[in-house]
Specification:
The chain is of the alpha/beta class. Helix content is 48%, strand content 14%. The protein folds into 2 domains: 114 residues, Rossmann fold, CATH 3.40.50; 109 residues, Rossmann fold (3-Layer(aba) Sandwich). A 4-stranded parallel β-sheet has the order 7-6-8-9, with helices on both faces. β3 and β4 form a beta hairpin.
């Protein structure tokens, strides 16, 4: 590792298991793509696990309270020495501009990074697994529309099922039933013309992975960690 490698700041805790998976995936990616073996082969990083009040499995409950905590969180990472910041949660990217305005270091946008991947794959219509807030705020719909990509968002019944899966993951109770629910919704998306599904909630990859279904899955955790590690180690 070069001493000039950039330090990654991770704002996590939303929820803790998703943040843990992000860190693990970051290690595995560095081993796979950079041949990391020694401690010094990995990117330097700080992790701030933020117990976010005003936030639950549906998403944002208290907007003002959430915003203040997020801004404080990214400032702490910058003060600690982070050269870039990633956030282990899709929903809170609705406050991306507020967070980025509060710090001088770049915050990588998980939604924009995912759009780039979907665009490169030449998909024109994708399904979305996400929290209720992410869907209601049209975070993916607005972003993907800029690239001419249609998003199939969950209907009311599908969203209720997704909320239950997310809550189960947050409590470490996910299992085969949750995986089956997600597979069934993915099939329903396919029947509506979706060519792939975006895992637009960082809890979801703890309940399903690519080996569980034939439809292409875009794991937003995997996408954001690859961008961060590449920036850190390649500059």
């Amino acid at each position: 590792m070069s001493s000039s490698n950039k330090t990654i700041g991770i704002l996590g805790g939303m929820g803790p298991e998703a943040s843990s998976m992000l860190y693990t995936k970051m290690i595995k990616y560095t081993q796979r793509e950079y041949g990391a073996e020694q401690d010094t082969d990995y990117p330097p990083m700080f992790i701030y696990s933020l117990p976010l009040f005003g936030f639950d499995e549906t998403g944002i409950v208290d907007e003002k309270r959430v915003t203040g905590q997020l801004i404080d969180g990214v400032k702490k990472l910058e003060t600690a020495g982070a050269d870039l910041i990633i956030i282990a949660c899709n929903t809170v990217h609705c406050f991306y501009n507020e967070m980025q305005s509060a710090v001088d270091v770049p915050i990588y946008n998980i939604i924009e990074e995912t759009r780039s991947w979907v665009q490169q794959a030449a998909h024109k219509k994708v399904g979305l697994f996400a929290s209720e807030s992410t869907c209601k705020l049209n975070l993916y719909q607005h972003s993907f529309a800029e690239s001419g990509i249609d998003v199939v968002a969950p209907n009311r019944e599908q969203q209720k099922k997704l909320n239950r899966v997310i809550k189960n993951v947050m409590g470490g109770k996910q299992g085969a039933d949750d995986r089956s629910v997600l597979i069934d919704i993915a099939k329903e998306y396919q029947s509506q013309g979706a060519e792939a599904v975006v895992l637009g909630c960082t809890e979801i990859p703890l309940a399903i992975n690519q080996s569980d279904t034939q439809i292409k899955l875009f794991d937003t955790i995997e996408i954001i960690i690859q961008s961060a590690v590449d920036y850190s180690l390649k500059g």
